[in-house]
Amino acid sequence: MKSMQSFMVALIMVALISCNNEPAADTTSAAPAFSLDSAKAAIAASNDAFMAAFTKGDSTGVAACYATDGKIMPAGMPAIEGQAGISGFVAASVHMGLKDFKLSTSNVWGGEELVGEEGTYTLTAADGTAVDNGKYIVLWKKENGAWKMFRDVWTSNVPPAPVK
């Protein structure tokens, strides 16, 4: 009789354990959790690469900081899309005498799909003259595991020249 009771207790235990309907956690395919601090660090590193490439006159290096479908939206002209178009715009800017581009990030926010960045910029000519300064907003997205600029818009703080 004692063995029958032990058997019944074991059978009930197995039944109770097998009633757990929750799926087992799959830890092998879980994507890493989004970290805004990691995104901020990646954006800061990309901005450093952007500024260094611009200072060297490396338009291809600047364009590599953008997503393949990235778009810049400068004031006073149509938007320019794609790395080739962005590279051409930067090359023309360097050819016009722009030499140094400084970015200063003031805020970064967002989630794993898109991250926004806002800040200020200063553009300097080859002779050291400050040419422009203003503010910008960039939307970043992940492309091949790296944060890339997706949309980039900026506006100058310098008033437009008077119309003659």
Automatic annotation (TrEMBL):
Organism: Limnovirga soli
Matches recorded under InterPro entries: NTF2-like_dom_sf, SnoaL-like
Gene3D superfamilies, per database record: 3.10.450.50
Keyword Mitochondrion: no
Annotated PROSITE patterns: PROKAR_LIPOPROTEIN (PS51257)
Lineage: Bacteria, Pseudomonadati, Bacteroidota, Chitinophagia, Chitinophagales
Ranges where the SnoaL-like domain occurs: 49-147
One protein family per Pfam: SnoaL_2
Keywords (A to Z) from UniProt: Signal
Superkingdom per UniProt: Bacteria
Span of the signal peptide: 1-24
Protein name: DUF4440 domain-containing protein
